[in-house]
Amino acid sequence: MTWTTSAGLRDQLEKRWARGLLLRELVLPGELFPLRLSLKVPGSSELSIQFDAVRDWVRDLQRDAKGESGKGYRLAWRSVRHHVIGSNSLPNEAWVDTLDDALSLIGKAREAKRFAAMVDQTRTRLPALLPWLARNPLRALAIVEDWSCLLDISAWLCSHPRPNIYLRQVDLPGAHSKLIEAYRGVLAELFDCVLPPEAIDSSAGGIGGFTQRYGFRDKPLRVRFRLLDAVSALLPGGKDQDITVSHDTFACLDPPVSRVFITENEINFLAFPDLKDSMVIFGAGYGFDMLQQAQWLDNR
């Protein structure tokens, strides 16, 4: 038997839930309902050969059909005249008239209520983010507990575009820096929705480009190096010149050495032997890109 059962009708709604189509109705109502579900019904020959099975199929469909509770799908019936079994009425179409009916059928009313609260809150505080909710309803529902804070952060950046401060300096109740860092991917999408083009550096993208894209300050990169020749010492006192400076400071150093070694291993860095007219840099996994601004390296 390949006729559509009540479970099959619910499965069609579950698939629409998984695609976010049902929750989207809470943002953009009126686009989906009334919804006609696919209903495969018995053919003429099956009515006489499998009449008992057809009767069981009808009873199965009626269990979740709209009754006194007013919830469920609505069955449309057709009259069938058969030369063996006579006149009968059989389901011919299945309709879900409202979003409430759909949610009731698949047991998602509670989740939808939480998402509806997110939509109401967003419509009141930052309606520019409603399209994002419509595109990403299930993602939004997964972060419902932090949504109010994410709205706070988005609204704050609208009022302070390209703030030129560190993320940890954002001063909002509940919006601690760990939350911002944890939600960089989501916040980037939200910021792109609410900020004017001139407040976004479109040349920077991805998680790594988050601070540059929205005008926050990056923590300065640190460069650690050792002078391997006491004659080339930059600081007084002590033979071991193990020094850490900011990336910008390193670019301006131009130390009195002619050879530069770079190692990614800290023990190698610490154990590197004394060597005349030389220095060693601890790469620390940053590779060579971090050193590009130090143009004095070109001549070493």
Structure overview:
- It is a single chain.
- With 300 residues, the protein is α+β, with helices and mostly antiparallel strands.
- Helices cover 40% and strands 15% of the residues.
- Strands 5-4-7-6 form a four-stranded mixed sheet. It has a three-stranded antiparallel sheet with strand order 1-3-2.
Span of the ends, CA to CA: 81 Å
Helix proportion range: 25-40%
Low-pLDDT runs of 5+ residues are: none
Strand proportion, as a percent range, falls in 15-25%
Overall pLDDT score? 90
Record the strand order, biggest sheet.
5-4-7-6
SSE class: alpha+beta
Report the biggest beta sheet as strand number plus sense, adding barrel if it closes.
4 strands, mixed
Helical stretch tally: 14
Which outline best applies?
Answer: elongated
- What is the H/E string? HHEHHEEHHHHHHHHEEHEHE
Radius of gyration: 33 Å
Number of strands: 7
Q: How would you briefly describe this protein structure?
A:
The protein is of the alpha+beta class.
List keywords for this structure.
elongated; alpha+beta; 300 residues; 7 strands; 4-stranded mixed β-sheet; 3-stranded antiparallel β-sheet
Secondary-structure topology with pairs:
Blueprint: H1 6-18, H2 21-24, E1 35-37, H3 44-49, H4 51-63, E2 74-82, E3 86-96, H5 99-106, H6 109-125, H7 130-135, H8 137-142, H9 147-159, H10 177-182, H11 184-194, H12 210-214, E4 222-227, E5 241-246, H13 247-251, E6 259-263, H14 266-271, E7 278-282
Parallel strand pairs: 6-7
Antiparallel strand pairs: 1-3, 2-3, 4-5, 4-7
